[in-house]
Recover the amino acids of this structure.
């Protein structure tokens, strides 16, 4: 089983951190994982994206031809990567910023109002944590506990953010579970 | 036994242990031979030979490892102070010095020179300024005087056309990592004695962990100046010192000479 | 990652000049090396940095520098001196787009520079090309070992993709520099022995001739002992892809995507780019009909493949220069073209 996830959005939306959290969670869980960011000029103010590949087998390419999961934090990301998602793939849309949907009906769309949910737990800054919580809950890639452990490992010494981020992740999980 | 008094011999002059018993390839009247001897005497007198690592330049002194009787390593042109930095940081208890000409230190290696000095590397530098490129056959040096003939300054160095001679010692003096810079010459007995005193003082700066120290030696090059050795000494003393005045350029050591 | 691997491999001296995309390495070592009694210096230039490495290795340290393409160009002078003076050192090159300032994307355009010397003189540089983080960690150890064993600079060649990809890594056991064999040619003061001199200038033509022959013999030994490559599914394959570094991983995924459709495709991955596994590729090419070369460049390793394969098999080439990273699907498209001979992706190389 191999799952390729692309996280994409504006620089500053915490897109790469979402990938970090998923990667670290997967590593701690004991499965194979690669994390490949688009970096450099793109990181400085433009769009940023990263690809996280998780597999129970050896992973060859860290680059994905077609993602199984797309996390689109802004409209350009949805436009760019929406058409590349596999059939029956998952497309998470940050509905606080994006009203559009991908023009195809062979993928499952999950709209997450990240800013509103993050505000509920204390700060808009947790928006990316809400999203990664929703992604892990819906996809089953990581459990709630594994996601929180991944966040702590990804942030290492920045313990002052642990509390808010954990609340964000829990809110993302709750959002998916309530919808079920 | 006869009543004659026994002859007693006392050795009053000889080859420093830090010099090998080799003939040098330097031209008659060249300053390098004298400078080598001064460096060797200072290293002997400070008891440093067995812990010394020397870095010669690319230039006439590139073969200095044939003459100095301690560990030495060649450096690419202009890079002795970067290379010496790597040595000194790896074995800080050793004594590390560079021996560089004007092209090496003040042209192609200017960046390495300035930054090693500014970092205050605990390295001592002997800087041979003969205002000409010796090994390559007499081309303009960064330190060539205005009006001086070189094979690439036909008619003499022109400030507007070739640029001004550079006074790298004064430039280095503004760097805070530098504790001592003095300019001496190798063009007379008195000057040579003064040069030795300065070299020894520069070496002490390293031993006392004070910072970077450099001694600039105005050095005759009769061959490329197209002069006799005697004329070359006179040219240093009468002409060269006008552009490069002798004396202490910087001294924050607190040493009493 | 590479930084920690270097420290564990006994590296105690690093000097380098910042250049993207490899700044994570010096940033890490600036804090890490002092913790183990080592030295980190941010040099004023790549030139100064490689010369600091010369000094440090001459004084006995396991020493490393790193850079990216334009910076490696500046280091070539020092690498030539290391080869001439027979001093060990490790140079990590995270390639970027070029020529000139190029860009900072994952190009692999410096195969020629890495494997053909780059600097002046009659010398070779062993070049290791890991394809992932685990292999990079292990090859950092190997690079220092080869450097010490043969007294030669060794280059670790990666691309911007490897510079940024993160994967879990299990590090080899650490090496204490004190446990390494003492090198009998270093400079540490001549107490109790004759003075030593380390130099590369040999004016006597007969001695220079002898020195060149000695180096040549060393390079032949390295070729005999250190040539490394990997194969995936080449037994019974009709088509074999030749790719190195991260390009090989994309190719491997492309092969997986095509599995079960069309002829069997294998992968041949040179791990040492110099010495290139010429003999191994040659004998493989006698049993396959087509060799498909894939590179992040306009065609550099291709020349070594041509020299190895000759006309034993048809050679096809797909090069993506500039730092664009093709997806496995695009490489699979190339392989389909190779199979069908439709020429839509890539091109046939006439030998």
């Amino acid at each position: 089983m191999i799952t390729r996830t692309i996280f994409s959005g504006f620089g500053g939306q915490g897109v790469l951190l979402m990938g970090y959290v998923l990667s670290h969670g997967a590593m701690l869980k004991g499965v194979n994982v690669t994390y490949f960011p688009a970096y450099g000029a793109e990181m400085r103010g433009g769009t940023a994206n990263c690809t996280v590949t998780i597999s129970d087998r050896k992973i060859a390419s860290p680059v994905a031809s077609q993602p199984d999961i797309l996390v689109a934090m802004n409209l350009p990301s949805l436009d760019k990567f929406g058409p590349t998602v596999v059939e029956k793939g998952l497309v998470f849309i940050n509905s606080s910023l994006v009203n559009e949907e991908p023009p195809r009906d062979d993928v499952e769309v999950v709209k997450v109002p990240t800013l509103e949910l993050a505000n509920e737990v204390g700060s808009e800054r947790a928006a990316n944590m809400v999203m990664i919580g929703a992604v892990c809950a819906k996809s089953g890639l990581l459990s709630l506990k594994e996601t929180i452990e991944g966040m702590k490992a990804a942030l290492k010494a920045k313990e002052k953010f642990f509390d808010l981020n954990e609340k964000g992740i829990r809110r993302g999980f709750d959002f998916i579970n309530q919808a079920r | 036994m006869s009543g004659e008094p026994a002859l007693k011999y006392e050795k009053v002059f000889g080859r420093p242990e830090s010099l090998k018993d080799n003939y040098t390839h330097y031209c008659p009247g060249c300053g390098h031979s004298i400078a080598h001897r001064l460096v060797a005497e200072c290293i002997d007198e400070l008891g440093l030979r067995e812990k010394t690592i020397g870095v010669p330049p690319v230039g006439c002194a590139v073969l200095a490892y044939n003459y100095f009787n301690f560990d030495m390593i060649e450096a690419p042109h202009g890079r002795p102070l970067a290379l010496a930095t790597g040595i000194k940081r790896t074995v800080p208890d050793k004594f590390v010095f560079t021996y560089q000409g004007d092209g090496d230190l003040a042209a192609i290696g200017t960046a390495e020179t300035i930054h090693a000095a500014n970092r205050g590397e605990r390295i001592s530098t002997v800087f041979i300024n003969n205002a000409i490129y010796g090994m390559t056959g007499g081309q303009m040096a960064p330190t060539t005087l205005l009006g001086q003939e070189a094979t690439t300054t036909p008619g003499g160095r022109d400030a507007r056309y070739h640029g001004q001679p550079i006074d790298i010692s004064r430039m280095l003096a503004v760097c805070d990592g530098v504790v001592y810079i003095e300019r001496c010459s190798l063009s007379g007995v008195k000057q040579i004695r003064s040069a030795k005193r300065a070299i020894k003082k520069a070496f002490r700066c390293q031993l006392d962990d004070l910072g970077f120290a450099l001694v600039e030696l105005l050095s005759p090059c009769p061959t490329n100046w197209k002069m006799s050795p005697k004329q070359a000494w006179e040219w240093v003393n009468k002409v060269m010192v006008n552009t490069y005045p002798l004396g202490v350029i910087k001294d924050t050591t607190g040493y009493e000479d | 990652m590479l930084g920690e691997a270097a420290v564990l491999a006994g590296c105690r001296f690093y000097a380098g000049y910042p250049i993207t995309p490899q700044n994570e390495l010096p940033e890490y070592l600036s804090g890490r090396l002092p913790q183990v009694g080592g030295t980190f210096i941010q040099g004023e230039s790549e030139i100064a940095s490689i010369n600091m490495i010369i000094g440090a290795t001459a004084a006995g340290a396991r020493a490393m520098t790193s850079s990216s393409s334009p910076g490696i160009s500046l280091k070539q002078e020092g690498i030539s001196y290391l080869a001439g003076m027979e001093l060990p050192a490790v140079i990590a090159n995270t390639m970027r787009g070029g020529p000139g300032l190029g860009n900072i994307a994952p190009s692999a355009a410096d195969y020629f520079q890495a494997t053909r010397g780059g600097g002046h003189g009659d010398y070779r540089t062993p070049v290791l090309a890991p394809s992932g983080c685990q292999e990079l960690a292990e090859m950092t150890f190997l690079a220092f070992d080869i450097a010490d064993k043969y007294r030669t600079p060794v280059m670790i060649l990666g691309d911007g993709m490897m510079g940024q990809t993160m994967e879990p890594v299990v590090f080899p056991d650490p090496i204490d520099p004190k446990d390494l064999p003492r090198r009998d040619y270093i400079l540490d003061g001549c107490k109790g022995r004759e003075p030593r001199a380390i130099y590369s200038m040999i004016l006597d033509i007969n001695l220079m001739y002898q020195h060149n022959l000695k180096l040549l013999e060393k390079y032949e030994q390295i070729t005999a002992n250190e040539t490394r490559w990997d194969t995936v599914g080449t037994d019974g394959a009709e088509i074999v892809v030749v790719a190195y570094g991260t390009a090989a991983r994309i190719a491997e995924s492309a092969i997986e995507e095509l599995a079960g459709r069309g002829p069997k495709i294998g992968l041949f991955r040179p791990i040492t780019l110099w010495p290139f596994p010429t003999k191994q590729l040659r004998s493989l090419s006698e049993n396959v009909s087509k060799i498909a070369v894939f590179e992040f460049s306009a065609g550099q390793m291709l020349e070594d493949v041509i020299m190895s394969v000759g006309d034993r098999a048809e050679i096809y080439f797909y090069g993506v220069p500039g730092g664009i990273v093709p997806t496995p699907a695009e490489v699979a498209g190339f392989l389909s073209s190779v199979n069908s001979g439709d020429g839509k992706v890539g091109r046939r190389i006439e030998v």
